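The pair is quoted verbatim as follows:
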Amino acid sequence: MTSPNVGTIYGLSTAPSVFGGEFNSAAAGSNLNYNVLDKNIGRLFPLGKKAEGRVFGGLRGAWIDQEMNAYYTNAFGTTLVSNPISFHGIGLHGGGRADWWFTDWLGIFGRADVAMMVGDISTSLHQTSDGGQTYQVAISSKDQHVIPVFGLATGAQFNWRSIQFTVGYEVTQWINLIQTYDVVGFVGNPAKLAQKAGDLSLSGLFLQLGLKY
């Protein structure tokens, strides 16, 4: 992004007064490494001639790494703001699922689950210039948190002999998983830290291939 002829870009992610706080151009990028492992046991029960339900419970483990980088440029040069966050935890997981079959091979399903995770969140806020050689801000912390997780999914399923193919849409919400810092005030006056918490929200289509035996 480049500032217009009559406008200015303000660095919302930068420390105040660093590089003047006003920039000619800005760019940003982010990535997410999402790993979740569930180990559950469940029980089926009939809901009717063409419907069945299942309740399940067990353990969930997760290791999630995410990072956002922002680059700002003005007459003083380029500054990089990096904010990596990682979570490693384990907790209880459970929920329920209902399946309705229109024919022997075509049906729909709905699923809801919840987890209560306990783990460490590591957060860093770094602002550098000179290709990463000079630090304006360097903050790191590691704290233990309890993270509630909620999930919903629905879709269609198809059976062919012992093979089951599922297509659906899933929404998952990790409460207060994103722990970040803001530097407020003016550097050297002194600067002050403000901590913020936000949710990690994921949604999208999924495909699943299973074998029933």
